[in-house]
Specification:
About 30% of the residues lie in helices and about 30% in strands. It is of the alpha+beta class. Strand 5 and strand 6 form a beta hairpin.
Length: about 325
């Protein structure tokens, strides 16, 4: 099978189980993922999360190779392996799906690559992208989920992949991981949102996954031009306040959130500096998802006018 021939959501349940048992592969943006699991519970949930993704030939060379194996009697516990090394040993089966998603993050985004990688959510509208760097608890994933339900395209919930040749952002659409109060905040804002089950008592608390929009998956080969870099921070009682951030501080904060900035050395600095020259930087405090989405929706950038004339800058 080749990419696009058949999607996860089109396969009969028995065929999905068979494929996962022997090993199944798919692509998200520039990355190829291999997953092998005889645990039907895991196979069914992953097939739902990635239902719009095309199934690849398992012979494709992977960027991440994950396996989930039963551990103990009754298949109630599993172990998760990344490239043959154990990542999580004997965890409850109910924890397997969120832990596998985090293992994919670690397996792909912490590997050597020619692209500059920043820990950030990324969305796009009218050809211009918004980069939302932030640590756990900053609210970037909740903001990302709210924005993609208000006209923005999902590029990634987890990482900004910046191509050195032109500074464009490469899409890596995956399920959006929502935690704690972010789950209820999105449900209030977008009752139609396609959320999976809530996984309690994970290492990061309550977690639920939002399906990536079908159109975002279909456009995973369409890069976008960076226009804004906003550092969000959820803070109860803060209201919604956004203020400009200077170029030097924007670069410093982005470098602190990058996975491989120091590894790329001079090239990393030049690529990041070029992106920041083209972007407007901001800091934002917020305590209300609606207000934050409205504020970010009001951002304007000269690239919007440029793209309207040129028809786009990235390819």
């Amino acid at each position: 099978m080749k990419f696009g021939d058949v999607k996860f959501g089109e396969l009969p349940s028995a065929e999905l189980i068979r494929l996962f048992r022997g090993g199944i592969a798919w692509r998200t943006g520039p990355y190829v993922v291999h997953v092998r699991s005889p645990v039907r519970f895991v196979a069914r949930h992953l097939a739902w999360l990635y239902r719009d993704f095309g199934v690849l030939d398992y012979e494709e060379i992977p960027d991440a190779e994950i396996s989930v194996r039963a551990s103990g009697m009754g298949w109630r516990r599993v172990s998760i392996f990344s490239d043959g090394a154990v990542r999580y040993r004997r965890v409850a089966r109910s924890q397997a799906v969120p832990l596998l998603e985090w293992t994919l993050n670690l397996s792909v985004f912490h590997r050597p690559t020619q692209n500059l990688l920043i820990h950030a959510a990324v969305v796009e509208r009218e050809g211009c992208s918004l980069i939302l760097p932030g640590e756990a608890g900053s609210g970037k994933s909740t903001l990302c989920a709210g924005l993609i339900h208000h006209g923005w395209r999902l590029l990634s919930d987890e990482v900004a992949v910046i191509r050195p040749s032109d500074g464009c952002l490469l899409p890596v659409p995956r399920p959006v991981s929502l935690k704690g109060g972010g789950i209820e905040a999105l449900r209030r804002m977008a009752p139609e949102a396609c959320l999976g089950p809530v996984w309690p008592r994970t290492p990061k608390g309550r977690v639920a996954h939002l399906l990536p929009p079908t159109t975002s998956v279909q456009r995973m080969d369409d890069p976008a031009r960076p226009a804004w870099i906003v550092f969000p921070q959820f803070q109860p009682g803060a209201g919604c306040r956004i203020q400009p951030l200077g170029k030097a501080d924007t670069l410093l904060h982005c470098a602190g959130n990058a996975f491989n900035y120091s590894i790329l050395g001079r090239q990393g600095f030049e690529v990041l500096a070029g992106v920041i020259d083209d972007c407007q930087g901001y800091e934002m405090l917020f305590d209300d998802l609606w207000a934050a989405v409205d504020t970010l929706g009001g951002l304007r950038h000269p690239c919007m006018a440029d793209l309207a004339v040129s028809g786009g800058a990235c390819s």
